[in-house]
Amino acid sequence: MRSHLLNDTTAESYRRSVTEGVERVARKLAATRGPFTGVTPADLAPLVDAVDLDRPLGDPSAALDELESVYLRDAVYFHHPRYLGHLNCPVVIPAVLGEAVLSAVNSSLDTWDQSAGGTLIERKLIDWTTGRIGLGPLADGVFTSGGTQSNLQALLLAREEAGSTDLTKLRIFSSECSHFSVQKSAQLLGLGRDAVVAVPVDRNKRMQSVVLAAELEACRAEGLIPMAIVATAGTTDFGSIDPLPEIAALAAEYGAWMHVDAAYGCGLLASRTRRHLLDGIERADSVTVDYHKSFFQPVSSSAVLVRDGATLRHATYHADYLNPLPQALGFARAGGTPMTLAEQIPNQVDKSLQTTRRFDALKLWMTLRVMGADGIGELFDEVCDLAAEGHALLTADPRYEVVVEPQLSTLVYRYVPEAAASPAEVDRANLHARKALFASGEAVVAGTKVDGRQYLKFTLLNPETTPADIAAVLDLIAGHAEQYLGENLVHAAS
Ligand SMILES: *Cc1c(COP(=O)(O)O)cnc(C)c1O
């Protein structure tokens, strides 16, 4: 069994094994004809069930053969131009290269003594990101597993900074279109069910700052504490960006922590033409970025950034075996004289909710070293341009009704039949079209509700998708919806 351990004596078998895996995935990617095969859980479950985990195949080639049928053949492929579903991006090759390196070396980014240069690389990327945001000289942050964790950590810091002993008095203000992880975080932080105040949005799905101001005033009048305002820079459904400067001014006025959830919109940080859409983000106390959404990075790659690095202490605990207190304070030498810089040990675990932690930063590092930030920004600009073209197609198409003009790269729309149909029938036709499309494997789109009605959604993150792809998918959807309504009419008549 030692032959399976990766070390000096097995380097050749590592090379063979990984190369074979890469070959197969490369062939798969080249031969993929659609984003999905339409496989159902009922089709696939028996194949997975039939695998006896207590009877290993012993051989990587055999395991890869088996993987073909239980996973690779029917996976959902985000690189396909007709994958228009959720916030998943095709990934850039330098990042995948980074992924291969980081899992083989297997550094753990909790402490310097488990990562060495990895810690410095992560810190440099954090500085790079806070620099792009404009958070100032005291800024800091840490890589996380995703936007959900980044939001949780930011709100933890906000809760601690609010300094209240009565958690039921704390309020978080976020738009009704903000991500559900805000509510989840409030719950995890023990804030109680009423903690999150949902501020209404305008017709472009941006938080109404006038209503926010009124809510803050009411909060104060009731003797409650405005703990945080969460501005979303790129809502998950609409890509709408809340009015950051107005929100920053209100946060300052009411002494609330300003968190900007830029999980989706962070790609603008690399854009040469759209960076201004994030103006005001530099006034945030904390920011969430998901490189695995708009920086074309493999899952996971995310970070939480803060204006004042000292606030990260709220996530700091000391363990004798890991990051003992004297070392962290830099007073380990006899007599209590401060350590020299060379003696101070940078331990990222002091800033993180996690302990053992992947070196995800390496993927972004490789990306920036090969392509540069402008390269990433160009890709993101392309999908934003594509969304504008898609919006024009939808507005010109009498079969469809579209919700907002996109600021980023999502389009929310619905099929509306020519013939009279009840709102419930229209809902069902759209839902059916989405499911039928998914089952056909020809394209994948997402769905969402707007004012209680069923809508469909394109999340465009693939620069390879063309307006012709969008037009073709709209024809497919209309076909499925029309067929559904046609059959329904037959039913109703009989
Ligand atoms: C995706 C998303 C999140 C959650 O990020 P994960 O990486 O999926 O945990 C948070 N906020 C917004 C606005 C998002 O779009």
UniProtKB/TrEMBL annotation:
One of its GO terms (molecular function) is pyridoxal phosphate binding. One of its GO terms (biological process) is amino acid metabolic process. It holds the Pfam family Pyridoxal_deC. The keyword Lyase applies. Keywords: Decarboxylase, Lyase, Pyridoxal phosphate. InterPro entries: Aromatic_deC, PyrdxlP-dep_de-COase, PyrdxlP-dep_Trfase, PyrdxlP-dep_Trfase_major. Transmembrane segments: none annotated. Gene3D superfamilies: 3.90.1150.170, Type I PLP-dependent aspartate aminotransferase-like (Major domain). Its cofactor is pyridoxal 5'-phosphate. It comes from the Bacteria. Signal peptide: none annotated. The keyword Lyase applies. The modification N6-(pyridoxal phosphate)lysine is found at residue 293. One of its GO terms (cellular component) is cytoplasm. Belongs to the group II decarboxylase family. This is Pyridoxal-dependent decarboxylase. The lineage of its organism: Bacteria, Bacillati, Actinomycetota, Actinomycetes, Kitasatosporales.
